[in-house]
Write a structure and sequence with these properties.
Length: 117
Amino acid sequence: QVQLVESGGGLVQPGGSLTLSCAASGRTFSTYAMGWFRQAPGKEREFVAHIRGVSRYYADSVLGRFTISRDNAKNTVYLQMNSLKPEDTAVYYCAATVTSTWDQGYWGQGTQVTVSS
């Protein structure tokens, strides 16, 4: 069982930056692929980024602006978000999985990110 707790969301102006954190419980954190997803009002949840081993993957909409990283010693995964746009406004969720599918993994409760002037 893995518990995930996101933090770091908030209100930021367009062009600004935020760093989200996701703290995980458990002793096998390093064996999990970790991902970030988001869901905007009225829209379906979408993939943002994930890290599996040393490989990182990004949605086209955030490529070059967002960076995912992890600190296995701290059981934490991060999402550095730069050059934020109003369309990045969403609830951001952290997820962990040891399989090839995220739906079979663990999810956090989400943190709100609002990009607005």
